[in-house]
Amino acid sequence: MAMRQTPLTCSGHTRPVVDLAFSGITPYGYFLISACKDGKPMLRQGDTGDWIGTFLGHKGAVWGATLNKDATKAATAAADFTAKVWDAVSGDELMTLAHKHIVKTVDFTQDSNYLLTGGQDKLLRIYDLNKPEAEPKEISGHTSGIKKALWCSEDKQILSADDKTVRLWDHATMTEVKSLNFNMSVSSMEYIPEGEILVITYGRSIAFHSAVSLDPIKSFEAPATINSASLHPEKEFLVAGGEDFKLYKYDYNSGEELESYKGHFGPIHCVRFSPDGELYASGSEDGTLRLWQTVVGKTYGLWKCVLPEEDSGELAKPKIGFPETTEEELEEIASENSDCIYSSTPDVKA
Predict the structure, then answer these.
(1) CB 3.0-4.6 Å disulfide test: which of 61, 108, 220, 260 passes with 37?
(2) Nearest-CA neighbor of 50 among 342, 246, 297, 247?
């Protein structure tokens, strides 16, 4: 019996959500950070979407956000010409890294000792977080503003994307190894360490390349312009979202479209799988984050599949159960709204 996808809606932001990132799996679960044009990046429990805290300090739109592997540090990139590093446990700002233009992207090395940044000034910068007073190393070569920059190959190389070019750099020599040129704007880039796979989206295309050589692996065409795509940790599926407000799920091996869902009320800007692959998160122009199940109907996080007793003679109907929600309340919600929505709403000042 087919079950209906019921996303969890995480509200709290007041402007479009433009970037999100998961931490690795820690003893306390995994975590999710979101970047938003309201200038207030938020930290949430990854499997439920429960709000943990908001990082306050930026004076402009936040374009990029990331967590280190164990979720002890966060980094954000903003339109106020700064990147900031935060203590993700206490929420305290640890350092502000001044730039000469808008910062779009940030990424930690695996040991969290270095931070990579990129932005509108076309330069890649590498900061030694143990020596915040030291000048960063700079790598030049991009001809337009940098949209995304990521460490790869155990931090020995760097991947970066500007408007229509993806470049691979050697960290030791600070020189370009290879580049890819596209005939339209690159909208997103994701690096998968297991297998060294690079996921690139541009126009309606979702392309997969070797992160080591940039050689093409395969590519898929979507029915709409795609802004972001993510590959499942087991490389079974990929999800993508874009301008038509829909999320698409594809079989990675065959390219077959398996499912598509419309839940957002605006274009989707970012989508990422959780580290355990059980869900994927999407961020949209509508100001919300939504969490979607990879396997619909599975009991996980706040999703609970409830089936009536077999001897009741009734057709089994899947239900979504939430903590502290009575059966009567669920039926009332379901009668008023076709979607059961869990909303994690912090107190956020306009």
Answers:
(1) 61
(2) 342
Partners of 260 in the beta sheet? 248
- Mapped onto helix, strand or coil, the DSSP state of residue 63 is strand
Describe the chain by its helix, strand, coil percentages, rounded to 5: 5, 45, 50
Closest CA to 57 of 23, 21, 97: 97
Please tell me the distance from the alpha carbon of residue 314 to that of residue 66, in angstroms, as a whole number: 47
Mean pLDDT (10-residue bins), the chain, 350 residues: 84 96 97 98 97 97 97 98 97 96 98 97 96 93 96 96 96 95 96 95 97 95 97 96 96 94 95 97 97 93 75 41 41 38 33
Phi, psi (deg, nearest 5) at residue 299: -75, 115
For 334, the 3-state DSSP assignment is helix
Q: What is the pTM of this model?
A: 0.86
pLDDT for residue 306? 76
The gap between the terminal CA atoms of the chain, to the nearest Å, is 44
Residue 1 pLDDT? 53
Task: Please name the residues in contact with 338: beta carbons below 8 A apart, sequence gap of 6 or more.
Answer: none
Homologous superfamily of 16-293: YVTN repeat-like/Quinoprotein amine dehydrogenase (2.130.10.10)
Report d(CA 206, CA 114) in Å as an integer.
Answer: 30
pLDDT of residue 276: 96
Cross-strand pairs, 268: 284
Answer whether 162's CB lies under 8 Å from 147's CB.
yes
Q: What is the 3-state secondary structure (H, E, C) of 13-47?
A: CCCCEEEEEECCCECCECEEEEEECCCCCEEEECC
pLDDT at 235 (0 to 100) = 94
pLDDT in tens, 209-262: 999 999 999 999 999 999 999 999 999 999 999 999 999 999 999 999 999 999
Q: What does the chain come to in residues?
A: 350
